[in-house]
Specification:
By secondary structure, the protein is α+β, with helices and mostly antiparallel strands. It contains two helices and seven strands. 27% of the residues lie in helices and 38% in strands. One of its GO terms (molecular function) is long-chain fatty acyl-CoA hydrolase activity.
């Protein structure tokens, strides 16, 4: 029987304080720093799901909704949305959290991750158990994003 894991089994949440060394020339969180944090979260989600090493294959729909500023608390949440044979899609949402705990979305991205065996070759990933309607809807949306990625690859983008 194939291995299976729930979406909740690999969910990751990290919290960062925006410090002066994280800022760009406009005094906002530098996109490259945020991208590093997002990639780390996506990697941790995929690693938890596969229990193996993983690599980042691509990033889609990296959407900057709002900026983050010095002393902002940035919360990043990653969760598995789709699995193929050796690849997976991880949704990563970013929020700025206010002192009262309210979270305002500032970014969303979808990462394609690939599981690697001990010889650095792609390996089969565990199936994903979908428990909620939200998880099922995200799976269906992920299939469409995957089709778009495949089309772009065929067209050389």
């Amino acid at each position: 029987m194939a291995e299976e894991r729930k979406v909740s089994d690999s969910r990751v949440e990290t919290v960062h304080m925006v410090r002066p060394n994280h800022l760009n020339g406009a005094e906002r969180l530098f996109g490259g720093i945020l991208m590093q944090w997002l990639d780390e979260v996506a990697g941790l989600v995929a690693k938890r799901h596969t229990r193996s090493n993983v690599i980042t294959a691509s990033v889609d729909n990296l959407r900057f909704i709002h900026g983050a500023y010095q002393r902002d608390v940035v919360v990043i949440i990653g969760k598995m949305t789709y699995v193929g044979n050796t690849s997976m899609e991880v949704r990563v949402d970013t929020y700025v959290e206010s002192i009262d705990g309210m979270r305002r979305p500032i970014n969303r991205a979808y990462f394609t991750m690939v599981a690697m065996d001990e010889n650095d070759r792609p390996k089969r990933v565990p199936r994903l158990i979908l428990e909620s309607e939200e998880e099922k809807a995200e799976w269906e949306a992920a299939k469409k994003r995957r089709e778009m990625r495949m089309r772009r690859k065929e067209e050389g983008f």
